[in-house]
Amino acid sequence: LNISIITGKTSQIPVAPDLGESILKKIVSQTKNNEILKRKFLSYKRTYARYDLDENGQTMDRKRKEITSIALGGNEEIIEINDKPTKKGKSGSPRFNLMSLLETMLKLDDFTIVKIDKIDDEYFYVISFKPKTTIKPSGDIEDIVACVEGTIYVDFEKFYIKKLSAWMVKPYSRGGIFGWNIFNLTKADIELTQEELNGIIVIKSIELIDKYSLFGRETSEKQTYLYEEYRQAEPN
Q: Which domain of life does the protein's organism represent (predicted)?
């Protein structure tokens, strides 16, 4: 492990082969506890948007926009769709489940510490991940995760994910019939950022870019999630 960024000179230190996986296990455990704190103490808004992309990957028309209010306790209510207020009581649900993703990655991926990096006077483990060759995925989500690799920035002291970037390294298909696949996914990129808010880790933004064909019709799209207006309740 190169630690020149800390020591000021290039040097190597031995790293246990399973240290990357151990860090991810710790992150999964802390994420579970963190979700309890978020539900108990935080309210916030989540803005979801979906855009078509042209052949060069440039954003075209916005296809949908939803603003969801998440109250203390985790109850969700969609308050706006495509810039128009909704009727009260329209319940929402999370479109992205970080906990589920991390647990799937922990099952399917190998993790390697690449280096220690410095961002805004804070140090981070830079951990690369890629699918194991010894485990066969089961189900659509696992099948897709097994086609993806990427990089995670983990806070050196507090062990939370500052940034996760992932990209597809091989296509995923399903629904084959007579040598023809009904669904083909050729791009599935993700960029996730988080930050700490008074001891609670919160998501700042998520961007998903995918390219797929369904019954021969090709679609390229970008989905974004923006989390904002976090309000913290006082502990009893």
A: Bacteria
The residues, any chain, with a CB within 8 Å of residue 192's CB and separated by 6 or more, are 98, 161, 163, 164, 165, 203, 205, 206, 207
Rounded to whole angstroms, how far apart are CA atoms 202 and 43? 11
At residue 3, does pLDDT exceed 60? Answer: no
| DSSP state letter for 24 | H
Q: Distance between CA 19 and CA 112 in Å, rounded?
A: 8
Instruction: Output the six-digit token pair for 173.
Output: 């298909």
**Lookup result for tokens 């086609």:** 147
HEC secondary structure over 135-181 = CCCCCHHHHHHCCEEEEEEEECCCCCEEEEEEEECCCEEEEEECCEE
**Count of C-beta atoms within a 10 Å radius of residue 202:** 19
- Per-residue model confidence as pLDDT tens digits over 38-76: 999 999 999 999 999 988 888 888 999 999 999 999 999
104, 141 Cβ separation under 8 angstroms: yes
DSSP state of 106: H
23 near 158, Cβ under 8 Å? no
Identify which of 94, 93, 92, 72 has the alpha carbon closest to the alpha carbon of residue 80: 92
Is the pLDDT confidence value at 187 over 80? Answer: yes
